[in-house]
């Protein structure tokens, strides 16, 4: 099962890759969660986010041909991994055995060559965006990122707003 932004789900990349690896299309469930990334960004406390995740998980479960089958739930949005625990709880409380997978963790390993330390771990971080980021979003994302990447938090605090970026 993949849960992601509307754009990611509409692209259909994950189902194509899974089908290419021999997974029957009847076993692949994709669930778009419009607005969830923004909710996560604006809701550090998590009450609204938790309710939204529960709603989308229920919708996804309703698409499963066999609700008793074990599930691998891929969080196909960078923001979703910040609330991995909410996804896991929503599946568990619904009686679905789900292994919630956060691709962000693997992406970082790929980016830095899997090395726990070394020259690549001292990367310089800049945060450049074409959108002005609201203060509440900066605060919430900083809270999520502080234990993971203080350099990213520092870059976010001083983001570069370039409206004509692309």
Model description:
The chain has helices spanning 6-11, 13-20, 36-42, 47-62, 84-93, 103-111, 135-145, 150-157; strands at 2-4, 30-32, 71-76, 98-101, 128-129, 160-161. It has 166 residues and is of the alpha/beta class. It folds into two domains: 2-115, Rossmann fold, CATH 3.40.50; 124-166. The strands form two sheets. A four-stranded parallel β-sheet has the order 2-1-3-4. A two-stranded parallel ribbon has the order 5-6. Strand 3, helix 5 and strand 4 form a beta-alpha-beta unit. The radius of gyration is 17 Å and the shape is globular. The two termini are 32 Å apart.
Properties at a glance:
8 helices, alpha/beta, 2 domains, Rossmann fold, four-stranded parallel sheet
Q: What structural class should be given to the helix and strand makeup?
A: alpha/beta
How many domains? The number is 2
Biggest sheet strand order reads 2-1-3-4
Binned strand content: 5-15%
Largest sheet: 4 strands, parallel
CATH class of the largest domain: Alpha Beta
Distance between the termini: 32 Å
Molecular shape: globular
Radius of gyration: 17 Å
Please report the number of helical segments.
8
Helicity range: 40-55%
Note poorly predicted spans.
none
Topology overview:
Blueprint: E1 2-4, H1 6-11, H2 13-20, E2 30-32, H3 36-42, H4 47-62, E3 71-76, H5 84-93, E4 98-101, H6 103-111, E5 128-129, H7 135-145, H8 150-157, E6 160-161
Parallel strand pairs: 1-2, 1-3, 3-4, 5-6
């Amino acid at each position: 099962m993949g849960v992601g932004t509307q754009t990611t789900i509409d692209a259909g990349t994950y189902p194509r890759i899974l089908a290419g690896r021999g997974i029957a299309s009847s076993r692949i469930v994709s669930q778009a969660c419009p607005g969830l990334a923004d909710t996560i960004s604006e809701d550090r406390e998590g009450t609204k986010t938790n309710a939204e995740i529960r709603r989308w998980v229920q919708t996804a479960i309703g698409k499963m041909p066999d609700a008793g089958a074990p599930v691998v739930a891929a969080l196909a949005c960078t923001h979703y991994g910040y609330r991995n625990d909410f996804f896991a709880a929503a599946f568990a409380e619904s009686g679905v055995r789900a292994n919630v997978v956060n691709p962000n963790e693997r992406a970082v390993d790929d980016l830095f060559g899997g090395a726990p330390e070394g020259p690549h771990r001292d990367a310089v971080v800049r945060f450049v965006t074409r959108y002005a980021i609201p203060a509440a979003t900066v605060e919430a994302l900083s809270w999520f990122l502080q234990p993971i990447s203080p350099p990213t938090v520092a870059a976010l605090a001083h983001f570069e707003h370039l409206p004509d970026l692309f």
